[in-house]
Amino acid sequence: MSEQKKQIATTIKTATEDLFKKMSVKVKVECKSQEDGPYLLKIDPESKEDSGLLIGWHGETMLALQHLLRLLIKKKLGEPIPFVIDVGDYRDRQAEGLKKTAEEACSKVARTQKPVILRPMPAFERRIIHLEIKNKDGVKSESIGEGKERRIMISPEKME
């Protein structure tokens, strides 16, 4: 990791620790630079109760914290820095569930030859589903809808 990336990771980590200290929430924070993507900010609360509060319903509180932290980091560094937060390994657990959902939907589409529309989900969840379906034969995916109602439709691939 370059010296600049180390400094950015340290700034993100310190700003996050300061924010949670002000919130009186005890957390362990780790920030890593990823080769081909944004920084990964892992936040592990000391209590399960705090973990649930910081994640929120379908990760909404976690996304709001990420937005707030992005604003703080931009103010500190003078430029926007791409990073994602993961509270209590929520994103990892969520990814496994989403892959299973994609698999089940693909099976249903293959069986019925009718489209399946999934629940609305944030962009990071839709991306996981799209990547999973990209490797499947006979099905395709596309995002439909706007804003918080944006969802994925999985449909049979047209044979021509």
Report on this model:
It is elongated and about 55 Å long. It is built from five helices and six strands; from the N terminus they run αββααβαβαββ. It folds into two domains: 3-88, GMP Synthetase, Chain A, domain 3, CATH 3.30.300; 93-156, Ribosomal Protein S8, Chain: A, domain 1, CATH 3.30.1370. The chain starts with a helix and ends with a strand. With 160 residues, the chain is an alpha+beta fold. The chain is 51% helix and 20% strand. Strand 5 (139-144) and strand 6 (151-156) form a beta hairpin. Strands 1-2-3 form a three-stranded mixed β-sheet.
Can I get a quick summary?
This protein is of the alpha+beta class and 160 residues long. It folds into two domains: 3-88, GMP Synthetase, Chain A, domain 3, CATH 3.30.300; 93-156, 2-Layer Sandwich (Ribosomal Protein S8, Chain: A, domain 1), CATH 3.30.1370. It is built from five helices and six strands, in the order αββααβαβαββ.
